[in-house]
Amino acid sequence: MANAASGMAVNDECKLRFLELKTKRTYRFILFKIEQQQVVIDKLGGPNESYDDFTASFPPDECRYAVYDFDFITNENCQKSKIFFIAWSPDTSKVRMKMVYASSKDRFKRELDGIQFELQATDPSEMSLDIVRGRTF
To answer: Global pTM?
Structure first.
């Protein structure tokens, strides 16, 4: 387990599943949560799950980290994918929870090598598919 600057550990399973998402494309997305002073996997989204399935997986009143493997076609008609990191911190979550997630985010993100874009969202509109699409070009 890696120690985070905030004292938060990252469960090795998180790094292994992220590597599978990145290299084998085993998952479309992964949600992570902080539990008992460490980052653990909350949900794995299968390769056929949609962006709507992904956004529906976020709890309305709890913070989460997530990675999403976004497929798109470039203006040159090439199939590409980019991995997004999303820090979900809804306004309705507890202040302490927001602070813990905010202070642990950068360290956790560094454990996941290969993230190309980051979004921070406090409500679903801040991570809409249009916003994600806009960041890919």
So the answer is: 0.91
